[in-house]
Amino acid sequence: MFVSSPLAAASATWLLFVLVLAFVVAPLVVDIANHQTIGMRFFAPFRFDKGFAFFLGADSLGRPIMLQLIVGARTSVLIAIFSVGISATIGYTIGLISGYFGGWVDNILLRIADIIHTVPSLLMALVVLFVLQPSILNLVIVLGITRIPVYLRTSRTQTMEVRERMFVEVAKAIGASDWRIITRDIAPLVFPTIRTLAMLEVAAVILSAASLTFLGIGLQRPDVDWGMMVSDGRAYLKSAWFVAVFPGIVIVLTALSANILSNWLRAVEDPAQSTLFFRARKKKRSSSQ
Questions:
Q1: What residues have CB less than 8 Å from 275, skipping those under 6 apart?
Q2: What is the C-alpha separation between 116 and 149, in angstroms, rounded?
Q3: pLDDT (tens digit per residue) in 199-227
Q4: pLDDT, tens digit (0-9, with 9 covering 90-100), for 118-129
Q5: Are 47 and 55 in contact (CB under 8 A)?
Q6: Which residues contact 136 (CB under 8 A, 6 or more apart)?
Q7: CA 153 to CA 131: how far, in whole Å?
Q8: In this model, does residue 108 exceed pLDDT 80?
Q9: What SS3 string covers the chain?
Q10: What band does 287 get if pLDDT is binned at 50, 70 and 90?
Q11: pTM higher than 0.90
Q12: How far from 93 is each of 148, 179, 190, 204, CA to CA, in Å?
């Protein structure tokens, strides 16, 4: 099923490539990436005479853009993974409890989610990071908290549907505890939806983190992410377009790949969408024969 979808395979390959760069290559080149060489200021891209590191050119302080992208990948990926992990774990757990028990527990948890959801996540992050010192930890916490209602509502809705099924009623009839029913019977059925949503949210978090850094509220040097690179290069778009364009392309490719892969996972796990997804492939194959 995965091999039969070239677009999903290409997206997964790109995301795997970014992960390898972020966790394997980035620690090895961080010192070289931050080394400033004023004589190489705005060095033009697509040239090998100054080494492979400068193939994508240099920024306003003579730092190699290619190595800056690799180091920025580590920061962007870490922020995305931990932010999504925090929000998905908390929202998934609270949604299971809220959807299963209902009543006053459900009402209290939903009101808390409504309070968080009424304030735009980007605006809340701007306010919090303006008051606190911008750092990777604060950025992860803010983005993680603001995305909790998305998972809470999804998990709650799925749980309320699953708890009405016959096997849950049978489990209650034979004396199974609420904890066992939630963890053994309901949670495994809700998890695939949360996993697909988390893949989709990775793209949203990467874009949010890049937006905050672009606005000057996110990370500060020596930390670097793709949004900071776009922000640094926006003043030189006419004279040195590549400083902002290359990190912008990487942001778009990563967000698009995460979106495509999440849609593919949803199509595979949903019987209706899966049938339509692979029916087109079969027709194309039969027509070619």
A1: none
A2: 7
A3: 888 888 888 887 777 777 767 777 788 88
A4: 766 667 777 777
A5: yes
A6: 75, 78, 79, 219, 223
A7: 29
A8: yes
A9: CCCCCHHHHHHHHHHHHHHHHHHHHHHHHHHHHCCCCHHHCCCCCCCCCCCHHHCCCECCCCCEHHHHHHHHHHHHHHHHHHHHHHHHHHHHHHHHHHHHHCHHHHHHHHHHHHHHHHCCHHHHHHHHHHHCCCCHHHHHHHHHHHCHHHHHHHHHHHHHHHCCCHHHHHHHHCCCCHHHHHHHHHHHHHHHHHHHHHHHHHHHHHHHHHHHHHCCCCCCCCCCCHHHHHHHHHHHCCCCCHHHHHHHHHHHHHHHHHHHHHHHHHHHHCHHHHHHHHHHHHHHHHHHC
A10: very low
A11: no
A12: 10, 12, 11, 21
- Tell me the two tokens of residue 229: 């690179």
